Amino acid sequence: MEAFAGLGSSVASSSRGVSAVHGSLHAPQGVPSRLDAPQQSQPIFAGKARCPQLLKASCGRSSGRRRSLVVRAEAGLTPPWVTPDARLVLSDGSVWHGNAFGATGTSVGEVVFNTSLTGYQEILTDPSYKGQFVTFTHPHIGNTGINPEDMESEKCHLGGIIVRDLSCVVSNYRSKQSLSDYCASQDVMGIANVDTRAITRRLRDDGCLNGVICNDASISDEELLKKTKEWSIVGQDLVAQVTCHEAYEWKDPTGENWEYRMAIAADNGSTSKEPLHVVAYDFGTKHNILRRLASHGCKITVVPADYPADKVIGLNPDGVFLSNGPGDPSALPYAVDATKSLLGKKPIFGICMGHQILGQAIGGSTFKLKFGHHGGNHPIRHDSTGRIEISAQNHNYAVNPDTFQSGVEVSHVNLNDGTCAGIVVPALQAMGIQYHPEASPGPHDADICFSQFVDMMKAYKSGANPEQVAAQALKKAEAAAEKAPSGVLAEAA
Amino acid sequence: SARQNILAVAAPEKAEEARLQSSSPPPFLAWETGKAITKRTDIKTILLLGAGPIVIGQACEFDYSGTQACKALRAEGYKVILLNSNPATIMTDPGTADRTYIGPMTPESVEDIIKLEKPDAVLPTMGGQTALNLAKTLAEDGTLDKYGCELIGAKLPSINAAEDRNLFRQAMDRIGLKTPPSGIVESMEDAFRVQGEIGKFPLIIRPAFTLGGTGGGIAYNQEEYQEIITAGLQASVTNQVLVEQSLIGWKEFELEVMRDLADNVVIICSIENVDPMGVHTGDSITIAPAQTLTDKEYQRLRDASVAIIREMGVECGGSNVQMAVDPKDGQVMIIEMNPRVSRSSALASKATGFPIAKIAAKLAVGLTLDQIPNDITLKTPASFEPSIDYIVTKIPRFAFEKFPGAKPELTTQMKSVGEAMAIGRTFQQSFQKALRSLETGLSGFSLPKNWKRKSTQQMEYNMRIPSPDRMMVIKQAMTEGYTNEQLFELTNMDPWFLGQFRELHNTEEWMKTKSLGDFSTEELIQIKKRGFSDPQIAMATGSQPMEVMRVRHLKGVIPSMKRVDTCAAEFEAGTPYMYSSYDGECECEPTSNPKVLILGGGPNRIGQGIEFDYCCCHASFALRQAGYETIMLNSNPETVSTDYDTSSRLYFEPLTVEDVLEVIRKERPEGIIVQFGGQTPLNLANGLEKALKENPLPAASGNGNVQIWGTQPADIDRAEDRDLWYDVLTRLDIKQPPGTMVTDEASALKASGQLGYPVMVRPSFVLGGRAMEIVYSDTDLKRYIENAVEVDPERPVLVDKYLDRADELDVDALGDKDGNCTICGIMQHIEQAGVHSGDSACSIPPQTIPESCLETMRDWTKKLAKDLKVVGLINVQFCVQDGQVYIIEANPRASRTVPFVAKAVGHPIAKYASLLMSGKTLPEIGFTEEPMLKLNHVAVKEVVLPFEKFAGADTLLGPEMRSTGEVMGIDTDFSKAYAKAAIAAGQKLPASGNVFISVADMHKEAIVPIAKELEGLGYSLKATGGTAAYLQKQGLKVEPIFKIHEGRPNIEDSLRNGEITMVFLTPSGDAYDVQDGKNLRRLALGLKVPLITTLAEVVPHMAACLRAGRHQFKHCSQRQVKHHSEAQPEGAIFELHWCEQEREAATDRKNRLQG
Fold first, then answer.
1. B930 contact A CB<8A
2. How far apart are CA B597 and CA B651, in angstroms?
3. Could you tell me where the beta strands, DSSP code E, fall in B830-933?
4. What is the domain range of residue B762?
5. How many domains does chain B have?
6. Cα separations (Å) of A469 from A427, A458, A466, A481, B1089?
7. Inter-chain contact B390–A139, Cβ cutoff 8 Å?
8. How much is the CA Rg of chain B, to the nearest whole Å?
């Protein structure tokens, strides 16, 4: 029900002539009551007439605010859907009509898309998405509900959620709650039944757009458009909103049921030895990073984003980890400074935002990508081995390798667009990964990064020369890449 | 190095500057930046093995994969040699491979080809289990080593490990994955032991090394267990079956995995089965991507798949892994893996736009995934995992109605003959589209008007034990108030699916309370978004489909086309691959070029399959070459026609009037081709023409209105409507067998009295021989009228004189707009008239028909073509009895025989036909002489039959078509060509032994010369009482043997003891035959004893072949079959010549094996 139409002149002048493309299909949004007389063929315009009675009478899938999705329309009495009751207005002037779920009201944010086929719960609770609206390109969202195990943080951080079809049924043995109930409890707005593919195409062609979801019919489209233009994510310190307030310990590894198959083979035994102590800066860390570090034998102290470097040194860690986090990496000078003063003193590993902070700390700069990388299928090439990892991605910014000093190696490249996806600074024992080796959601191919970090810390602890450490890490990666298939073939040979 | 690579893109300002300075900055391309190219240069020539004839479990998906592989390897600069016995394939067209051999898929043939062509490598992973088994044999017996030929794509150990259940289980144990508790069984004693170990029924029995699980099944009790074990041990090449604990009710998933030689692994697609475990995945309704898994659960399956492809040593290429997940606690069990492209990978390719076979072929020659561009985005590499923003549903199509006696139940043995796939933005939309794509009379998830409601007991049984119509049974249950909880109890389908079905049901119930005029525009959009077709809306609201469409169009509710782009719109893509939705933004961007829409054949079924897809592809190739933009519309994921680069554009849509019209309205082609896709598009022709007449649409090119090209629907009707047809024949003075149309039993009896038995009876609306029968007596006729068909004035029955022991012939010809007609080929059937032409072997040129009769046929065909204004192809069937020619029927369209004729005579006649339809004439394309007149070889087509998949069905051939595929043999004379075809079809031709003969009285005279010939060839004869006595009287030495009911030892004992090497058993139609005859035929089939159930002219030829077979052929030379193909005059079809010499290769192999 994503019928949308032009919004005055702003759309008429839009580059792709939206109203012309959609007009002929998309009938008026004002859906008259079904008691109305049969309709004539009508011109297309953005009408606002609604039929509140119908809304009340209907009791369908998309009304997340009704607590239970089990209560359904009796067959035959009403159509099994709800009339559009919410709008998504994008800063390019397009208006998308759909159905609200989750919280009610008006919400503004930066609209991005995510092409992952699974893992909406992890995305919802990933602090990196703070303030963003995620358009899920996969059409069915909510199928498996929400379960307590798959949380990436304590709460939902998204500003809004945009889906094609909110599942009318939740089916999973671990599910405890429906998606819309969860969104409602987290005060997050959602809109369903919009053409997510069309929105994605816009974001792809025009870059990230701001958007507003609103289910208050009294606010005009023009006012909503104005809101999108007033709001900006650039320069916002979103990290301050998601970081922890005080340091804490993290010990939980990935649950036995969910342990990464390859990782077990690679690192079995490391947990039994003296654990390595990692101080993890929380810029909005995903729990799974902490779980993966724990699974690889680390004991973790999580510290707030503005934790002073000298206090980190005071904790005497074996390594420092810089987490992922939301927003613009150039808005965090304090974190860059802290990293600078830790560089060379402790092995450092940064993921996503952490990678961008590390990049800045070693003298590079970051820039905003046109529409970012958000998905679970991006190919990454580990440069020295040629090994390919299919990776989970979620970032709008990237570091510019042209701005690095010598001594910085670009270790990983995103094969879709050639952007820098990983760096190593052997002399400083620092490594950064732009994507998400901890997956969740996404493939586990890059889990080896954690063991490389662990090796780096072990070598540091044993007093090895940094260059040797780097050489060892490379050797390990090469071994992983060239690992001859075990089993039948080997036996036969 | 990497740093240099990324400069251009990673520094945006700089790039912007660069763009300003030079208009085209080099884009980042992964394949230009990687490590040194690893492509194999030591390999020059590659032998590709095809899949042979279409059988259940192995259909035209392997033509698709093989064709892609040929194209890909040649594009990489390799010389490709191809062997396939199936002429109806695009891969065997001259021009696809460098050199093509059409011949038996046997180790001997392959060895001969290797000797001649000296390939460096053999690629066995594109031709299904047939090719893999062949490769296994050749690798094990040392042939490949002998000639220095390398197996690429899959090595012997991984082929073995995937197929040998024990090795597979050990491999899974090693990597910590669970497999269902099970045991390997090689004897009945083993079977009891394993049963004891597992401890409880039901048990699943899977034979090793079989196609589509032949001989497997689920045993619920001791008796069934023994039965299935016996069948399974027989079916398995290695006499091995796996018995395992049944996971019935678990969720079933498949992951399509690809790996390259650098050990990079990607998952192309996840597939979820709507039918839970217990139904073969080929028979299951499946969807992509999986819908009911959380990320953690999905990644666990992904990790397992990656580990499996590594552990199994599939060094590169595609594989599929099947897994079961317990819905209660998420426990995972690994079911099996195939180390090759499969039907699922064809589906995954079509579902995602990722060409698995093409990429697999490139990986086999050493390229890595990042060195290959993604065909669709062109900018990103193939080393990624497709993300899709739509749902794909596949629904299999069955043919149980063709096999009376076989239980229509779905088990772990695959029984479907084809499948339809549909793409929709949501599950509901794609599911309903898939249902109507099936062409089984459904217009979506609604009970059809003629639905016979099942009793409660029947309904619940059908939900517990799935049947082909299970979805309609669920729908009926919903109308009867079953809750989803109850439905889950009965079906074990995931509640997510049941919830979706429920919503469809509720929508329909709501629609039923409305009339068409009540719907608002918004409501209509909502209904269409859920995939409801116009006929469904019409049925619910008491309207007519065309009226629904009219109202819809008035309100502007029309579909929007979306593109399949592998990346969920993340990247711009030039893909021409589209599907319809009602989602708003339309992406089809039609051009105003001259273009033509080709309607495909829909899901494969018996009687309509790969042959028609071949024709559609040719039409597309020819017209593209002639300057048209070609648009393909089809719903069959197995085919070459639904490859996105076969045509300029591809619409993956159901073949219904509504869906086709919507595409026409978007694209506005100049022409629509309906005569290449078999019965499916022809059935749409009238509806389309009517709609186009009422609302003419100007063609987008500005050249006139959209119209149907070729023979016009009205003229096609004249050949199909009995009265009109009679008029045509009378006017043209063409003879047909006497016959009449009756509307009740009395008139039927009267008519057959006048005609004299035997008579051929069939319903007047017959298609593909459905319900056609030959009856020999009044009793027989009464039974037919009572049981087989409904007879009333609305549905008359045709009673025709059956021409007993007559020869049947097929003529394919081309006609043009000026009334010219050229005969393409005349085929003589080897079975007697009365066997469906699709089930009959045949020969080009005819062998025993007088020239005068052939002349008559040529003359009549030309007259008919002119009178029916045939533009394009026409197929005419004739019967010759005692020198008199009769016409049986004419089909003014492409027939099943087109690819065979094209390959036999060396002319691309489907291409010619499409050019004729576009307005060219026969003189213009230079095809005015009958090519058969100049042939210096004989081509024979033989069929393969699926009886072994349908326990309980009789194996007789008759007017009802049952074969699934065909093979071709080509040589200098008939008997050699026939023997090749017979070998290719898998028939054993015994060189000696006992031949058992039991024929009906009416056939006794005819069997005498055959028996004499057999005796002369050194066979011993055995026969039952009457036949034995008759033959002895004729001076033959025959040993009598008891019929089953006469005592012991009887013929059954002899058969079981392996004392009989061939059986002649014709049906007499009496009670004895219905009982014992059927059992004997099934037994012979089960024991793989050659079985001949028809007589007439064929048998001496058969015997001649047998005689030839005794001389043990050897391929001693090769010769090119001249093929008139502009595309590639050099690359052509080759025949291997056989000499009557001691078979060197066979002896050689035997020695090697012993050594």
1. no
2. 10
3. 842-844, 872-881, 884-891
4. 738-798
5. 5
6. 9, 9, 5, 18, 70
7. yes
8. 29
Examine residue B62 and state whether it is found in any structural domain, yes or no: no
In degrees to the nearest 10, what's the CA dihedral of A446, A450, A455, A458?
Answer: 180
The domain made up of A8-230 has a fold known as Glucose Oxidase; domain 1 (3.50.30)
Same domain, B604 and B633: yes
> Which of B313, B391, B569 is the closest to A200 by Cβ?
B569
What is the average pLDDT across A298-323?
96
Q: Would you list the DSSP string of B98-148?
A: SEEEES--SHHHHHHHHHHH--SEEE-TTSHHHHHHHHHHHHHTTHHHHTT
Provide the pLDDT for residue B7.
34
> Given an 8 Å threshold on Cβ–Cβ distance, is B175 in contact with A416?
no
What's the confidence (pLDDT) of residue A61? Answer: 39
Our answer to whether residue A352 is catalytic in this structure is: yes
Give the Cα separation of A228 and A211 in Å (integer).
5
DSSP-derived secondary structure for B1078-1142? HHHHHHHHHTT--EE---STHHHHHHHHHHHHHT--EEEEEEEEP---SS-SSSEEEEEEEESS-
Nearest Cα to A391, choosing from A443, A432, A354, A450?
A443
Residue-level pLDDT at A29 = 33
ipTM of the complex: 0.89
The token pair that represents B1057 in the structure block = 């003891």
> d(Cα A319, Cα A276) in Å, to the nearest integer?
8
Option in B167, B383, B426 nearest A415 (CB): B383
Domain containing residue B762: CATH number: 3.30.1490.20
Do B496 and A169 lie within an 8 Å CB cutoff? yes
Q: Are residues B787 and B878 in the same domain?
A: no
**Percent of the residues in chain A that have a pLDDT greater than 70, as a whole number:** 78
Residues facing B2 on adjacent strands: none
Whether A362 contacts A425, CB under 8 Å:
yes
CA-nearest residue to A42 within chain B is B555
How many Å lie between the alpha carbon of A308 and the closest alpha carbon of chain B?
32
- Provide CB contacts within 8 A for B1047, sequence distance 6+: none
Say if CB B412 and CB B324 are below 8 A apart: no
Give B1065-1080 pLDDT, tens digit per residue: 877 656 666 667 777 8
In terms of domains, do B623 and B654 share one? yes
For A391, which residue in chain B has the nearest alpha carbon?
A: B384
Which member of B14, B495, B585 has the closest CB to residue A198? B585
Domain membership flag for residue B535: yes
Instruction: Please compute, for residue B1112, the number of CA atoms within 13 A of its CA located in the half-sphere on the CB side.
Output: 9
Q: Is residue B300 part of a domain?
A: no
The predicted pLDDT at position B720 comes to 84
Q: What is the pLDDT of residues A372-405, one digit of tens each?
A: 899 999 999 998 888 999 999 999 999 999 888 8
**Contact between residue B293 and residue B245 where contact means Cβ atoms under 8 Å apart:** no
Query: Which A positions 29-58 lie with beta carbon below 8 A of chain B?
Result: 29, 31-32, 34, 36, 38-42, 44
pLDDT of residue B1105: 57
Mean pLDDT of A53-63: 31
Can you list the residues of chain B whose pLDDT is less than 50?
Answer: 1-16, 18-24, 1096-1097, 1100, 1109-1116, 1125-1131, 1138-1150, 1152-1155
The whole-chain average pLDDT of chain A stands at 81
Residue pair B1099/B1005 in contact by the 8 Å Cβ criterion: no
Spatial contact of B616 and B601, defined as CB atoms under 8 Å apart: yes
Task: Say how far apart CA A361 and CA A356 lie, in whole Å.
Answer: 9
Partners of A485 on chain B (C-beta within 8 Å) are 263, 310-311, 313, 315
CATH numeric code, A239-482: 3.40.50.880
Asked if residue A472 lies in contact with residue A459, where contact means CB atoms within 8 angstroms, the answer is yes
Pairing state between β B203-207 and B241-245:
antiparallel
For residue A205 the two structure tokens come to 């062609």
